């Protein structure tokens, strides 16, 4: 008799779980017709090395990327491509601004080339007025077009003398970065109200091209954690400088751009998978967000890495520690959180085979063959944008968030018709809207990557992320809007997806 009741109870429970899950999925998949909060900052993004060209013009110094592109007979980048000319935006910036204007963009995220402004990276060696003048023209052009400049100080191009000095592994770089930040706040802060210190340190800290050095990586990893430590200090010093000397009169805000994919628990009903997802978020995003907003690395990172380091027979942890003075400096140095997001994957506890960060986090990734993939093999998983934003919001007390990159990469194709990219933007932006409307996230802006097709780093020009097409075989490098640019223009002007009239 008791057995019978148990079966009935179990059936009810099962029905409840399945039905509940189905409702959740429907809620997730159903398109939400609604608009974004007033003043939502729509825009697109680029970075200096990927678009500017003019690699040796007007006194610019050499960088790690100039070196990487030319070293090894050009074999470090696909098809021997390099950024010597790129989209020639150094000269064609007015064309780029016209594209933004035509799209109705309210903001433009671009980066400054440190080596144009301070050619050796060290202020004692001199400032390059021609470089400063260049960005003055760009910023003036944007302001005149009614487009807010959203400026990244560091998007991966490092002056060569600093590279030779150990790059981000040498703590003296903290002062060089702060000196550079002082120059740009002073020169541009009257018109620039949104600053990003770094773009995706998670990507550049473990990358050999960052140090212009092959075979850079060691496992178990030590150097990426040292790089991260110096990045956090550099961000905090620049933030404190801005806060005390510039913010009172210039009234801008400063954040950092952190990339974060979404680690979906492979089995949502398995607690160890859900924990693996949470651990992944603390390692991938919290690694930076936690020290900058709470003064210390995530406790789970501290615990695991201290334990592993001891087991490896080390005297000190591979994860460095901030002393009391630094803890105070770094704590609370984000006016907003920047997020770059492209895709999701499944996570589950590690079977011991994963390396680098996931190895240290005791997790592993899996990719679902049932998902759609972009032409370059990244999953198309719009739900992840909502989940990642909502996770960050809940973990950090619903801070202001700017999505500083999101986009679709395809291999070279000549058409302006890009239906996959149109779908990608429609669905990802809709999920971002759900995170705001249904989960209470405070997302304030969105920048599509990218305004134009450009140099996709070591993939050269073989991968296109632009919503505006660049014809790289025509020496004039003409730009033409793709369907996706036309779609974004509509989303921007509608401020989202208003309910269609019956
Ligand atoms: C970003 N991932 O890099 C960069 O900020 C851009 O400069 C770049 O062009 C863009 O995304 C497209 O790649 C990423 O593997 C590199 O998840 C790798 C990943 C994400 C972003």
UniProtKB/TrEMBL annotation:
<protein>
    <recommendedName>
        <fullName>Lactase-phlorizin hydrolase</fullName>
    </recommendedName>
</protein>
<keyword id="KW-0732">Signal</keyword>
<dbReference type="InterPro" id="IPR001360">
    <property type="entry name" value="Glyco_hydro_1"/>
</dbReference>
<dbReference type="Pfam" id="PF00232">
    <property type="entry name" value="Glyco_hydro_1"/>
</dbReference>
<dbReference type="InterPro" id="IPR033132">
    <property type="entry name" value="GH_1_N_CS"/>
</dbReference>
<keyword id="KW-0326">Glycosidase</keyword>
<keyword id="KW-0378">Hydrolase</keyword>
<feature type="signal peptide">
    <location>
        <begin position="1"/>
        <end position="20"/>
    </location>
</feature>
<comment type="similarity">
    <text>Belongs to the glycosyl hydrolase 1 family.</text>
</comment>
<dbReference type="InterPro" id="IPR017853">
    <property type="entry name" value="GH"/>
</dbReference>
């Amino acid at each position: 008799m008791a057995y019978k009741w148990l079966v009935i109870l179990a059936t009810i429970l099962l029905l409840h779980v399945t039905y509940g899950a189905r409702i959740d999925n429907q809620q997730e998949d159903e398109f939400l017709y609604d608009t974004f909060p007033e003043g939502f900052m729509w825009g697109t993004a680029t970075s200096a090395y990927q678009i500017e060209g003019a690699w040796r013009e007007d006194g610019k110094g050499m960088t790690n990327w100039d070196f990487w592109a030319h070293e090894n007979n050009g074999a470090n980048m696909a098809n021997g491509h390099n950024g010597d000319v790129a989209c020639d935006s150094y000269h064609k910036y007015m064309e780029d601004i016209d594209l933004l204007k035509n799209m109705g963009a309210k903001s433009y995220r671009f980066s400054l080339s440190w080596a144009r402004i301070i050619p050796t990276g060290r202020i004692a060696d001199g400032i390059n007025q021609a470089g400063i003048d260049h960005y003055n023209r760009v910023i003036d052009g944007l302001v005149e077009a009614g487009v807010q400049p959203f400026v990244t100080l560091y998007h991966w191009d490092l002056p060569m003398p600093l590279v030779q000095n150990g790059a981000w592994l040498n703590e003296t770089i903290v002062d060089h970065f702060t000196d550079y930040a002082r120059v740009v706040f002073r020169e541009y802060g009257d018109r620039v109200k949104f600053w990003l210190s770094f773009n995706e340190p998670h990507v550049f800290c473990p990358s050999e091209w960052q140090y212009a050095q092959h075979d850079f990586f060691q496992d178990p990893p030590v150097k990426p954690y040292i790089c991260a430590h110096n990045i956090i200090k550099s961000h905090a010093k620049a933030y404190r400088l801005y806060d005390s000397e510039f913010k009172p009169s210039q009234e801008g805000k400063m954040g950092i751009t952190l990339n974060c994919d979404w680690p979906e628990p492979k089995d949502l009903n398995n607690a160890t998978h859900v924990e693996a997802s949470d651990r992944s978020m603390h390692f991938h995003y919290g690694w930076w967000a936690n020290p900058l907003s709470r003064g210390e690395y995530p406790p789970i990172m501290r615990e695991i890495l201290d334990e592993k380091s001891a087991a490896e027979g080390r005297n000190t942890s591979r994860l460095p520690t901030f002393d009391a003075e630094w803890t105070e400096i770094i704590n609370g140095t984000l006016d907003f959180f920047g997020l770059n997001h492209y895709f999701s994957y499944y996570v589950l506890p590690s079977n011991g085979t994963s390396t680098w960060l996931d190895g240290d986090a005791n997790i592993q990734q899996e990719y679902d063959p049932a998902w759609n993939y972009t032409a370059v093999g990244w999953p198309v998983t719009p739900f992840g944008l909502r989940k990642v934003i909502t996770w960050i919001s809940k973990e950090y007390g619903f801070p202001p968030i700017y999505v500083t990159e999101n986009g679709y990469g395809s291999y070279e194709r000549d058409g302006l018709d890009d239906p996959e990219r149109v779908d990608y933007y429609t669905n990802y932006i809709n999920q971002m809207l759900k995170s705001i409307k249904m989960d209470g996230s405070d997302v304030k802006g969105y920048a599509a990557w990218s305004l134009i097709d450009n140099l996709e780093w070591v993939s050269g020009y073989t991968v296109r992320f632009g919503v505006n097409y660049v014809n790289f075989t025509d020496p004039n490098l003409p730009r033409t809007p793709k369907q996706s640019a036309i779609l974004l223009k509509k989303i921007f002007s509608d401020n989202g997806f208003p309910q269609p009239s019956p």
